[in-house]
Amino acid sequence: MMLQAAPNPLMKVENLVVEYSVGGKTIHAVSDVSLEIARGETLGLVGESGCGKSTLGRAVLQLRQAVSGKVLFDGHDLTTLKGEALRQMRRRVQLIFQDPIASLNPRRRIGDIVAEPLVIAGVKDPDERRRRVAEVLSAVGLDPTLVSGRLPHEFSGGQCQRICIARSLVLNPEFVICDEPVSALDVSIRAQILNLLEEMKARYGLTLLFIAHDLAVVKAVSDRVAVMYLGRLCEVGPSEQLFARPAHPYTALLIEAIPVPDPDVRPTQSVPVGEPPSPIAPPSGCRFRTRCPRADARCASEVPELRLVATGQFAACHHPLI
Amino acid sequence: MSSALLSVENAVVDLPTPRGNLRAVDHVDLAVGAGRTLGIVGESGCGKTMLSRAVLQLLPKKARLSGRVMFDGQDLTTLSAEKLRKLRGRSLAVVFQDPMTSLNPVLTIGTQLIETIQEHLELDLAEARQRSIELLAAVGIPAPEQRLAQYPHQLSGGMRQRVAIAVALSCEPKLLIADEPTTALDVTIQAQILDLLAREQQRRHMAMIIITHDLGVVAGRTDEVAVMYAGRVVERAPTPALFKQMRMPYTEALLAALPKLDVAPHTPLPAISGRPPDPTRPLKGCSFSPRCRYSAGRCAFEKPQLCSAETPEHLYACFHPIAARVGA
């Protein structure tokens, strides 16, 4: 199925399935997900905790082994690569995590932390390493001469995230997965980091997979948005269009539930009660049906396929809103 | 404000740290009337949680509090530990961000509810049990009778927060303090919990303080909002006035920095440059002045005091307030 018009996507995920085994039970974390990301595009991936969005990000990087499916990066299937070939490919794909402080080794100096990927990649010349580290640190808005010799605890959360971003860029990657990069940060710092990611994307010609639970944050940076629920993709479409006219009832529910900072907008009381079911025993058919106002017998028996509902917009629903 | 149920008068909280004294709360005055809802908004480290701990008299042991905390006619700072214990849970209740901090992991939901009820109200076991079931039903927990035998880890985050709210409501408190009650929850669950709090607050005619970093959470659900920055209340106003006629540049900047759904993708956000000041190194002037785009003249060396806008309910602490700036 074609999800995207780009003839030559940089990243293509095909029918990816990821499952974990916990205490003899199987968690269906990612079930048959297909996605394409064009070169230079930012794809936002939203969903609530436990929907499988982070697992998907990790499976793309081969940090989590897929049960089945393909991850095609620039035409190479990462799921079949091993050893040196996978390491070579990984240099072109980087990851930024949610907790910037926990992702930095507290005993190492900033200069060494940011240089580590270069060491692993075999850049032997220390002057060359220093030059590259200084370049990315300046790019993320830190003074290399002031920060290189210091330890992570001397920095705030926002600054640590800048350091993490510098580390992810030092190998000149093409594709960066940002997994909730701003959700641990305060509002005033969050805007700085989102702006920085946009600048870095333009400066280094990056393609981004931006994973977050906050719709407004995702919309601020994404060209297209994919919505996940309980391991499956509900809807994919151009950001503006998806938020203006959601086709999947779950997308509509997410949009409705966002608290709006305007006292004239009365909070809606129509959000249905209920919580996401367990990914150990997901509902049959459409996984959202247990909370969906439109669900009927067909939703319980038949898994909805992603179908075109508007230009570039796909929804997996038997009773779409458009 | 003599009619207020709670009034905090000139509260100062100092915490000794290895780096020197940390002034977490700096001369704060606040009041909440019976049946009213106050939102306290601020970023991490602004002192909002320390302020709520001061009200609850649950500050860290080393902390020093000065000022008065008048609740229901008594100054809580002068009460004995025993009297405070009787008051907390009975007429003064709290819901924390992480429900696991208030629920005991090794006791069943039923034990925790019944224990709280019997501690404060004169009910026998059967009556307390019945009341627990009613409370769980009221906070939207399905099959409440079966839940009594379950442990917190058997429930989801949203359900645990509902239980924590049920415990807090169990003795019909006069004031409920909700400290980031939905921050740990998903957005669809957040809306449900906020609706639940609003419904119970109205039904019980209870006063409520919602502490949050999210302006969206307080917008439609509070009567009045206080914005805190670096330990001080920098603006306080009835909720509509705060959002529509804000005076404090920090309030304006905080609202502007929020990503919004009605803005096109890739629009640069008006970020607030820099970061909050080090609380162990207090600034001489306005704490926000190093990050403020309107900062000028005396902002750097003189501290602005709270003063009132057109209405006495609207207070702000700024030498260059927003509406007055035109032509000034």
Automatic annotation (TrEMBL), chain A:
One of its GO terms (cellular component) is plasma membrane. InterPro entries: AAA+_ATPase, ABC_transp_ATP-bind, ABC_transporter-like_ATP-bd, ABC_transporter-like_CS, Oligopep_ABC_C, P-loop_NTPase. One of its GO terms (biological process) is transmembrane transport. It comes from the Bacteria. Residues 11-255 form the ABC transporter domain. It is a peripheral membrane protein. Keywords: ATP-binding, Nucleotide-binding, Transport. Transmembrane segments: none annotated. It is found in: Cell inner membrane. GO terms for molecular function: ATP binding; ATP hydrolysis activity. Pfam families: ABC_tran, oligo_HPY. Belongs to the ABC transporter superfamily. Involved in beta-(1-->2)glucan export. Transmembrane domains (TMD) form a pore in the inner membrane and the ATP-binding domain (NBD) is responsible for energy generation. This is Oligopeptide/dipeptide ABC transporter ATP-binding protein. The lineage of its organism: Bacteria, Pseudomonadati, Pseudomonadota, Alphaproteobacteria, Hyphomicrobiales.
